[in-house]
Design brief:
Elements lengths: L1 H20 L2 H10 L12 H26 L9 H8 L26 E7 L15 H4 L1 E3 L3 E2 L5 E10 L4 E10 L6 H6 L12 E2 L9 E10 L5 E10 L3 E11 L4 E4 L2 H13 L8 E9 L6 E9 L5 E9 L5 E5 L13 E8 L2 H60 L9 H47 L3 H4 L6
Antiparallel strand pairs: 1-15, 2-4, 3-4, 4-5, 5-6, 7-8, 8-9, 9-10, 11-12, 12-13, 13-14
Helix pairs in contact: 3-8
């Protein structure tokens, strides 16, 4: 027992001596003397790591932007919701390019006859323009009628007719299509499309559906000589017993106003009641607007007829000014016709284009399509090369910016300022300004050297061209004896 106690005491004493000898200071000294591997260099401080990280982020952004621009050259599904909504936004149809319509041809057909067209007078013979509805008009409920072109080929006016099945009513609007100002007259008329029309009609019939089976239509008759006024006839009637009444209307494009010439009907009724003792209101009669007089462009000529169940009775040739202020009787003899000017134009079919010409045009069109396809690929290649060049240039700028930022950090570390006077910041700014000035001067000199090289290259090319042009030919160098 005594031996165990003595042994334990000896162990405790030895432990105390070792603990006193192995102090914390000795432990710290030994740890400091150990050679631990350092994961980064001393110059790789937090500022340089931050600049390198920012450069990497900017490079990724530039590459992503380049890939997106490259994809945008073609419609692709890799787009954001914002880009899709932007592409899906409604566009102004009036700005879309309308090609000249071409006849459709099936893949197994080698030749399809193509109609030839020509431009003729619209109001020929005078008062003849009428609305012609298709057989399926009531099924389609709407139809656009061939319009009239102004004398200066700037606009086309056409009626749009609507059918209301429930009320069995027909109404009409008159729209204007501005024509393109490039190409020949026939091409400009062919390119006229309802997509380019003005949204609001210049004239509309009443849209009342209270009366069953009523129709109201607007038919352009003719333009005046300078194209500032348009004569229109409005027909009102019933689908059961025909036309009730025709009204003459003048639309003024300079003031955007219309005048219904009701005075001409009143003048005709008054004349036959006053001088012939005939009340036209007891009979069915109507007027036919013929157009603008050739001798008096500001007056409109009309013819009046009464219906007796057989041959219509001629009620005279009449005229009225465009404001409807003064009506005149020209003649009660139908043989004495008033000269009418024909100013408006329209396009009609004049035949069929010969097969040889059609085949030549198709061959030429194929050549143009192939040429356009090559040009499109060439432009696309140039765009991609431009994008790549832009990307490389921006990446070089990022390298220069990183180099400059690292240089700034290095300069900040070298500047030793006085802490008492706190002039370290001023010294750093001064050194940085000097470094920036040197960098700009260096870039300016490099740019001047590049411009000088380019100028010398152009001068050498110009001298070479001049020498080629002024060099005498072999025949010029021969002497008269040799000749």
């Amino acid at each position: 027992m005594l031996k165990k106690v003595l042994l334990l005491s000896a162990v405790l004493m030895f432990s105390t001596l070792c603990a006193s000898a192995f102090s914390w200071e000795n432990l710290r000294d030994r740890i400091d003397n150990l050679d631990f591997p350092i994961p980064f260099k001393e110059e790789d401080n937090s500022a340089s790591r931050r600049e390198k990280y920012l450069k990497k982020v900017k490079e990724e952004d530039l590459k992503e932007e380049y890939g997106r621009k490259k994809l945008e050259l073609h419609p692709n599904p890799f787009m954001t919701v914002e880009e899709y909504e932007m592409l899906s936004a409604p566009k102004d149809k009036k700005l879309e390019e309308i090609p000249v319509p071409k006849p459709e041809k099936a893949a197994d057909m080698k030749y399809v006859p193509q109609y030839d067209y020509e431009i003729v007078r619209y109001n020929n013979p005078p008062g003849s323009p009428e609305i012609s509805l298709n057989t399926n008009f009531k099924q389609r409920r709407q139809q656009n009628i061939q319009g009239i072109v102004s004398p200066d080929y700037t606009i086309l006016v056409y009626p749009s007719v609507y059918y209301y099945h429930k009320e069995n009513n027909v109404t009409c609007d008159l729209f204007v299509i501005p024509l393109e100002q490039k190409g020949n007259a026939l091409t400009r008329i062919k390119k006229a499309n309802v997509m380019h029309r003005d949204q609001e009609p210049i004239l509309s019939t009443a849209k009342s559906t209270e009366e069953y089976g009523i129709f109201r239509t607007l038919t352009p008759v003719d333009f005046n000589l300078d194209g500032t006024k348009l004569l229109i006839k409005e027909k009102i009637g019933s689908n059961n017993d025909g036309i009730w009444q025709t009204n003459a209307i003048v639309y003024d494009f300079s003031t955007h106003t219309s005048y219904k010439l009701n005075e001409i009907r009143d003048a005709i009724t008054y004349y036959w009641q006053e001088y012939k003792n005939l009340n036209l209101n007891d009979f069915r009669w109507d007027i036919y607007p013929l157009g603008f007089e050739a001798a008096n462009p500001d007056r409109i000529a009309v013819a009046a007829f009464a219906y007796t169940g057989g041959t219509p009775v001629f009620l005279g040739s009449w005229s009225i000014d465009t404001k409807g202020e003064r009506a005149l009787l020209h003649s009660l003899n139908p043989e004495n016709k008033v000269q009418i000017s024909m100013n408006g134009l329209k396009m009609i079919r004049s035949g069929v284009v010969p097969k040889s010409i059609v085949e030549q045009e198709e061959k030429h069109n194929r050549y143009l399509d192939e040429y356009d396809e090559k040009q499109k690929k060439k432009e696309e290649k140039e765009q991609i090369e431009a994008l790549e060049k832009e990307l490389k240039q921006k990446l070089k700028e990022l390298d220069k910016d990183l180099e400059f930022e690292l240089k700034k950090d290095e300069l900040r570390g070298k500047v030793q300022g006085s802490t008492s006077q706190n002039d370290a910041v001023e010294k750093v700014e001064e050194v940085l300004q000097n470094a920036e000035q040197k960098r700009l001067e260096k870039e300016q000199k490099a740019k001047e050297r590049q411009e000088a090289r380019e100028q010398r290259r152009l001068e050498r090319k110009l001298r070479k061209n001049n020498n080629t042009q002024t060099a005498p030919s072999a025949e010029e160098n021969q002497t008269p004896q040799n000749l």
